[in-house]
Design goal:
This protein is of the alpha/beta class and 289 residues long. It has two domains: 86 residues, Leucine Dehydrogenase, chain A, domain 1 (Rossmann fold); 132 residues, Rossmann fold (3-Layer(aba) Sandwich). The protein is 40% helix and 18% strand. It has ten helices and eleven strands. Strands 1-11-8-7-5-6 form a six-stranded parallel beta sheet. It has a three-stranded parallel beta sheet with strand order 3-2-4, covered by helices on one side. Helix 2 links the parallel strand 2 and strand 3.
Amino acid sequence: MYTIIDGRKVSAEIKQEIGAEVKELIRKGKKVPHLAAVLVGNDGSSVTYVNNKVKDCAEVGFKSTLLRYDDNITEAFLLERIAALNADSDVDGFIVQLPLPGHISENKVIESIDPAKDADGFHPENIGRMMIGLPGYLPATPYGIIELIKRYGIQTTGKNCAVIGRSNIVGRPVSILMSQKGMDATVTLLHSKTRNIKDIVREADIIIAAIGSPGFVTADMVREGAVVIDVGTTRVPAPGTKSGFRLAGDVDFENVAPKCSFITPVPGGVGPMTRVSLLRNTLMAVRLS
């Protein structure tokens, strides 16, 4: 029988821990942590994500700010807003929600964020610190994945780990974190040009699927007793539901789950852990300041 890795439950536990630390900060007369978010346009997934982030802040006692702009703003205007957030001493951490409209360079925006306020952990300086094992802000989703694995006591030392997807946001950084001392997994990073993906994944003890292709990981790709972490959150049509869509993961959960020892659901697995990681990075910024 498989165990569901419950991201909602773990994130609630972490939020309680963060909330207790915030109360202690306030008791000592220190400032309330402040997390801001910049949202450009009206992408449904992004709107839902940042709205949930605002709720998370309220739950743990953070101050939060949401700056919303139309998708026709210029790149120069957005960079000015980021510079203002960098200079605002009351803001401890902030994110610029991705994806951005095509006329705005995501890399230029990420590089313009002060690394000390980089709640998403995407700035090249923070990625570099992660690469060589120095303290810093970790990319939020990989940070959440590692925390889930640790809190469920899943053994990683010497295990074969297949990471499917090589994005700078999830695939590449989580492959690095899984291979570092303390996790000690042997990692294979797979992508759209990898040959014999099914054969490689079938040999893995731990599968982390972050490719954005609903149902990509099927039962014939998974060995008995594998641990499966599903990062996918693709909106697919669901006639008859209130929203008209549902979230689909990268794993065929119904058929894969019976073969697993541990598996994350979608929704309710990795997603809540991504948001709580933003809070953890912001709290770290407060500690460092």
